[in-house]
Here is the input.
Amino acid sequence: MIKLILPNEEYLQSYKEAYDEYVENGISTYSFTDALSCDVLAKFDNYRNERNLKPDRVGADYYWLVDDDRLLFIGETCVRHRLNDALLYNGGHIGYGIRYSEWNRGYGTKLLALALEKAKEMRISPVLVTCNDDNLASARVIEKNGFILEDKVMISEDGKDVLRRRYWKTISQADPCFPRSRASTKQTEDKHQ
Ligand SMILES: CC(C)(COP(=O)(O)OP(=O)(O)OC[C@H]1O[C@@H](n2cnc3c(N)ncnc32)[C@H](O)[C@@H]1OP(=O)(O)O)[C@@H](O)C(=O)NCCC(=O)NCCS
Here is the structure.
């Protein structure tokens, strides 16, 4: 069964293999964490709890899409607690990556949909996602999830000019069953500052 889980030891080996697939195939539009150079699970825990982060980083909740029949890590998403000036143009609220060997099977579309459910629980709306203008697969995933293209902005990345698409989606807050989370409270406070 395909499911979204909190990162855990059980899938760490498979995660490392997905990291290697990205390195071998030169994928840089999303980065899995190098589990050989740091404690991945501790890093995610710090992001979730907004602990020991560099000043330019915001808190984020990381999730893994896995296939528990194959004990396979399929993809990762991070849902950021809020935007900062940099994320407004490069990164947005949600990042995601599917392991190279599982592309074009619908997983990217599913992962973003599941990330949106998390954003909804966190009362983040509207939600911003960004992608490189030439990342057509990602643009397709974003558009299939109902996002609207606002603009394309030129940003500087590793000394190069890169055109980024910025997409927004408003999530209805009408559901009375919304849980109130730590992150969502912060998001609401930030908006009113
Ligand atoms: C972008 C990414 C998440 C897509 O994941 P995926 O599992 O392949 O996505 P899906 O299978 O759900 O959908 C891909 C869609 O893009 C389309 N697509 C794939 N390659 C394409 C290309 N080169 N040009 C145009 N469309 C393309 C597919 O046909 C599919 O659309 P369809 O369902 O209408 O046929 C995956 O390629 C990835 O992880 N890339 C590296 C990390 C990354 O770029 N993350 C996003 C950062 S913004």
